[in-house]
Each structure stands twice: as C-alpha cells, then as structure tokens.
Amino acid sequence: MNDGNFFRSPKRMLGTTNAAELGLLYFATAFINLLIAGTYALLIRTELWTPDPIYFDTAKDYNVAFTIHGTGMIFLVVVPLGAGFGNYLVPKMVAADNNDMYWPKWNNVAFWMLPIASVFIWFSQAPIGWTAYPPLSILMPGVDMWIVGLVFAGTSSSIGAINFVLTIWKGRAPYVKWMSMDLFVWGTLFTSFLVIIATPVLTAALVMILLDRNFNTVFFSESLSNPILYQHVFWFYSHPAVYIMVLPAFGLISTVIAKFSRTQVFGYSSMVIAMAGIAILSVSVWAHHMYTTGIDPFVRIFFTSMTFVIAIPSGIKVFNWLTTMYAGRIKLRAPMLFALAFIVMFTMGGITGVYINIIALDLNLHDTYWVVGHFHFIVAAGTLVAMFASFYYYFPEITGKMYDEKMAKLHFWFWFGGNFITFVAFQVLGMEGMPRRYYTYPEEFQLWHQIATIGAYLMGISIIFMAISIHRGLKSEKLESLDDPFELGSGYDYPEPFADYIKREHGEDLVIEHKLSIWAPAGAFSLVLPFLGLLAFTEGGPFARGKALESFSGSLGGNIFIVLFLVYLGFFFQKESSAHIGELNPVDKYREGERHWEIWVFLASEVIFFTAVIGVSQAIKWNSLTWPDTNDVLSVPYTAVLTFVLIISSFTMATSLEHVKNGDMEKFKKYLLFTIILGLVFLTGQIIEYAQLAGEGDVTLADNATYPLFSSIFYLQTGFHGLHVLVGVLFLGFVYLRARKGGYSKDNHTYVELIGLYWHFVDLVWIILFTVVYLI
Amino acid sequence: MDNSIHSGLSDLGGNYMSKIEINEDTEHNMFGIYKNTFLALTIMTIVEVAASYLPDGAYVTVILLLLAVAKAALVGAVFMHIKYDKTPWLLTLSVFVVPLAAGSILIFNVWKDWRGVAGA
C-alpha cells in the first residue's frame, strides 16, 4: 500500500526504484495522457458533427488530431497502463527476491522515457496518421519529432519487457511454480516476449523513415524503391502491438472475473496455452492489413488463413470466462461490470475482426469507418475497459481506501453506453461507405456521425465520474482491513514474500531497501540531448523536413546538444566507474551462478533487429534488376582487413575475460585495452571507407548517386552495425575505467562477462554482414 | 542489507539456483582454444575473400554462406561460451533460432511481395 506521501515528493518520484511506486507513476502518466488523447478524440468528433468546418481550420489540422489521438492512445496510454499494472503486481505475484523488478534502476529509466516520449509526441503535431505510411510521412512536417518520441516509447517498452522477463524468469521465488502463477503474470510474460521480438523491427522502420527524410536514402521512394515495403515492416510490429496491449488485459480480467464470481478461473491451463498460441501466431498475421495493396495472392492466402486460426485461442478464453461465471456466484460491483463489458466488447471486436478477414469483404470495407469501429471495440472498449476493471479492483490495495461505488458505476454506464453507441455508429458508417480520416463528408452520413459524436461525449463525461470516484475514495476513511475489501470470500492473495519465507525458514532478516537513484532518471533525460541535436540538424528545426547532412556544420543548436551529451557521458562514466560494484544492485550476489539471461534476452532482440535489417535488404537485392557487383563498387580487401581487426578484438576480449577469471588483473586490463583500441581502429576504418565511397560517387547518399537503393541499404546495414560497435567501445571504456580503479576481481566480474558477450555478438553480426554485403 | 543470506539460497530448490559454469578441466585449456578459434576464423576469412573472386555462380554463394555460418557459429560456440553452457540447445534455440525464424517470415513476405521499380 502506498504511504500517501509519494506524490508529494518530487525527489522520490524522480529517483524511485521501487516497482510499486513506478507502477503508480505509470498510472498517473497514462491518466494524463488519456485526458490529452481523449480531448483530441472529442475535438475530432466535434468537427464531424456537421460536414462543414467547426473547430479545425484546415484538413491538415484535422490530420494532426487523429494522428496524435491514435499514437497517444496506443503508445502513451494503453501500453503504459499494462506496464503500470506489471510494475505494481508482477513482483508481488512472483514473490520476487526483493519484491521488486529484476533491474530496479533500469526500471526507473524505462519509466522516465515515457514522459519524454509523451512530450515529443504531443509537440510533434505530425499529420500522418499513427501508421505513418510513406510517401506522406516522408513529405510532412513534424515527423522527425514524432519518430523520436516513438523511439523513446519503444525503448521504454523494450527495457521494461526485458525487465519483466527477467523478473518472472529469474526473480521468481522458487516456491512459485509456473502453473500456479496468476494469469496476469503469464500475460505480461508473453507480451514482453512480443515486445522484445517486434519492437526492434518498428524501430528499424521508423529510423528508415527518418533517414529517407533527412539523409537522402530511398528505402520507401515511389520511383526508386517501394513504399509498400514500409507496410510490411511497420505491421510486423504493429499487429502484434494489438496483442501487446490485450494480453495483459486478458490476465487482469481473468482475475477480476474469478474473484467476483467467487470461484477459480475455469481452464487455467487452456488459458495459458491460448495466450501462448496468440503470442506465437501474432507475428504471422500482419499482412491482413494489406489486402488492398495488390499483395501477392499466395501471401494473402497465408495471412487470411493464419488470421482465422488466431481467433481460436481468443475464443477459448471467452468461453473460459463465461464458464467461470456460470460456475460461480457473481457479485456486481464496478470492477465486475467493467469485466462483463470487456467480454461483450472484446467479442464484438474479435468477431468483426474475423469478418473483415474475409478478403472479399475487406476489399470493400478497408479504410472505411468499419475498420475504425472494429479496432476501437478491441482497444478502447476492450483493453481499456479491462484496465478500468482492474484499477477499481486494486484501488483499495493501492490506497488503503475504497473508491466511490456510485460514481464508478456511473463511469461504467456512461463509458459502456458511449463505447457501444460510437463504435456501432462507426461500423454502420463504414458499411455505408464512409472512408476514414476525412474531415468532411456527404450530408447523407451526418446522422450516424452525430450519433457517434453523442457516444463520444458520453465517454468523455464518464471520465469525469471516474475522477470524482477516485477523489471521493482518496478523501474517505482508511479501510480497517485489506484482506477482503469487496467481501468476496477471498482477497488479494499473493504468494508469501520471499524475504518472509527466508526469515521463517532460515531465520535471516532480509531488509528490503529501495534506494533512490538520481543517475537513472538523469540517464534517461540525457538521451534527449543527442535526439534534440538530431532534430536541430534538420532544416528549419524539428518541425520541418530537411536534409540533416547539409546543415550539419551550420547548426549551432545541434552541436551544443551533442557537446552537452558528450560532457554528460564523460561525467557519468567518471562517477559510475568510481562506484563500488556492490552498490549497483543489492541482490547481485543472489544471482551468482545463474546464466546471464539479462544479456541473452537483449541479444535475442538484437538478433531479430539485424535479421529484419539484413534480411529485408537481401530480399530487395534478390528482386533488384540493377544491383552492382560489389567487387566493382566496394573494396573487399580493405574490408577484409577490418573484418580481421574485429576478429582479433573478439580474441582479445575472450582472453581478457579469461585473465580476470584467473585473477590476473594486469593482463585482464591489457587485453581489455587492446580490444578497445581494435574497436576504434575498426570504426576509424569504416569512416575512411565511407569518405572514400562518397568521393567515388557510386555508393553515396548524394542526389546523383549511381546506385541510390544499393547505397541506402549499404549504409543502413553497415551504419547500424557501426553504431553497435561504437556503443560497445563506450561500454568497454567504462569497464576499463572501472578496472583501473580495482572494480573487478576474480570473484566479481559479471559486467565484464556481459559486455564481452555483447562484443562477440557484434563481431558475429559483422561476419554475416561482411559476407552478404561485400562478398555475395 | 545482509548479504550472507545468499549463501543459503542454493538449498531452496530445484534448478532455480543451478550453476551454469564451464568445468574446471576446460577452463585451463581456454587460452589454447581461443588461439585455435582465432586461427580458424582467420583462415576462413582468407578463403572467403579468395572465393569471392571466383566466377559468379550458385556454388560460390553457397560456399560463402557456409563459411559465414561456420565462422558465426565458432564465435557463438567458443567466444560466447555457448558450447560450454549446461544447455547449449536452449540458448541457441531461444536467442538465435526463434528470432531468426520470426524474422524469416518477414523476409519471405517482403521478397514474395516485392514489386520494385525497374531500374531500382
């Protein structure tokens, strides 16, 4: 339970590493974002009250509104709410070793990236739709800033996902068995796997847009490449994103339904298997968003089949919830009302999804309001409703008080009614032929638009009731007991905290200490600097489309941001390399002897990132008619020498690690230094190669390049790899500084192992790249 | 915080605190193994560069790809210690095979659906 003072202390809010407190910060941030994104929704619906302009002066302003509404609701409201519940509940549900996330400091970093992402996205005012299809997203202003915001949101989500996997996999108390975990833990675990697999691909797609806008690449050029490529890469993330949002909701709602039915969840095992099935299948259904693009018929059949199949596990879950209620005795408090609404609305969204997967229908309904109705039933009426249900259910535990039931029920009825009216109206409009994303329409659509607007305002009013319910709850008396606040016969039953178990079994008193870390949020904020620098380099600043290369030397602001970042980095390295290794994490020793899943999970996400980047590049190459012979345009012997340098560096890194394991610290430091030098030699060699290629004129990003598409792909692959080498050199430098101060020993060298694995992986990627880019 | 508590944790159950370490005999020979691996990688890189100058043909591509996979596997197995892990198949499957398989679906569909412009 929160002590009530948390939100009164900016220092605590900034530096907390306590998962429960960070969960509250996620809730607060998501709620603020909900108000902003919701306001945009009301502005959109107000505009559509009549076919004539009411609020927005131009179509572009309207485009900004639906872009910001959609992006905000998905990335800044629903996904963070899942992370918020995850933070608050998962450590307790798995009795994690210190009732906390596996990486407390990184958890703080992940959270603070969210407000940063929010600010970037709100202020971007990008008018491109949340899907950001090129060529529109290449041409419109504000997109650079919007992309930076999304990269922050995606990075926050990825760090959080790795942290959840580690907390559940490694931090789980030994007496919490897999098949006795709360279903929310399973939902969070599968969601985290999806985030780890899919988010790097979204990052790649967004960076490619950024490069097309500012660095003259032609990945999505309509004349030199194929804009449809973007849709494949984008939807590879963004369809699983639906499940990233809904899987935690499945887990949350299962608990609420079972509790308020005063029985156990029916078919626990099948629920877990169904979630696993959804997670696995979700990466093979994305092209159902692309049936009207003229997609290859074979591809279309594959995706329509997989989309029908993925409905089966969702159906299993719905029937299990119904059976749970049938077997129980239902108590209709606000959380249960929302849970019932979830089942109804999610089923409507799901069935309409199956319906639109019929290709013949999709060809007619695609890009109409029918689709808008479908996904709002899933996200707003489904996932968000599950979050409301759980918020009310856990409110007494979080605050020690009870929300106002009457207001919560009004919130429910207005939200449920508003959802139903609006989204049904959307689907009717879609069937009538109303296309989405238009700020005006023929008068024949006006009645259904007005009905939809009335529904939207009911939703808006419902949030006022929610705020009153919370306010009254917070002002009420503390509950005498939190054992069973809803009088259901059972309360919040978490497994016994690990510390209590140890005290009981071993007599040791493990003190749970949540240290404040100012360096963690400072790290998150410092990352804003290079991105601000990048934005400043674009012509006309962050709100315009420009050529970054042309204004590189002339942008004073950009250079200042970059210099500030480098100063911060130096200061941070100096400070952290002085810190005693034991201070980094209070449970480090507890993890000794375990496999280092933290780096392996991260490397898995890197594998899919490079698979996407290299693989998609190869797919384009296989289809290209005018790919140059690499021996003619690239210097293979020169790059072979660079490859050799990297291979030596892997050898020196492995040798360095072996020496620290044997306690020979001098040789450890010597070989570590060799590795850093070799990394720098590789980077320098790559810069020289780029300069030579630019001078020759064949492989360049200049307007008159002989091979523009080849050049784009060449610089994308080698550039991303070079960036990884740079990060590796920085971390190696950090480890070296710490080693010089005696930070490692024969028994304490975990971080050397972690950076070593990363370095070898970077070497491994280059081995593949050297072959596919230079030799074949 | 009392760190001595951790000494008792290994008794708490099952595989939870299992040790995944290289055995002692192997550890003594690691320097030699690293040198041999480095030599093998160097030789294969020289062969690769030489092969890239052979006349174009499917067999050259196959040779180059096999060499690349062999080199990558060596780095993974030896330098990244996957070979010496208690369950190398689990690491290989979860870190490399599954992400590669998921990414391959994307690659296949981009390739199949590519309608590039002539001259691109």
How would you describe this structure to a colleague?
- The complex is a heterodimer of chains A (776) and B (120).
- Chain A contains 25 helices and no strands.
- By secondary structure, chain A is an all-alpha fold.
- The radius of gyration of chain A is 27 Å and the shape is globular.
- With 120 residues, chain B is an all-alpha fold.
- Among the domains of chain B are: 29-80; 86-114.
- In chain B, 62% of the residues lie in helices and 0% in strands.
- Chain B has four helices and no strands.
- Chain B has helices at 24-28, 30-51, 58-79, 88-113.
- In chain B, helix 2 runs antiparallel to helix 3 (58-79).
- Residues 1-24 of chain B have low confidence and may be disordered.
- Chains A and B meet through helix 8, helix 20, helix 22 and helix 25 of A and helix 2, helix 3 and helix 4 of B.
Strand content of chain B: under 5%
Mean model confidence by pLDDT of chain B:
77
Instruction: Tell me the major beta sheet of chain A.
Output: none
**What's the helical proportion of residues of chain B?**
55-70%
Strand content of chain A: under 5%
Tell me the number of strands of chain B: 0
Say what the CATH topology of the domain at 593-775 in chain A is: Four Helix Bundle (Hemerythrin (Met), subunit A)
* Straight-line N-to-C gap of chain B: 63 Å
What is the β-strand count of chain A? 0
Determine and state the CATH class of the domain at 593-775 in chain A: Mainly Alpha
- SSE class of chain A: mainly alpha
H and E order of chain B: HHHH
At the fourth CATH level, what is the homologous superfamily of the domain at 593-775 in chain A?
Answer: Cytochrome c oxidase, subunit III, four-helix bundle
Largest interface, by Cβ-Cβ below 8 angstroms: which chains and how many residues each?
A: A-B, 83 and 74 residues
Counted by DSSP, the helix tally of chain B is: 4
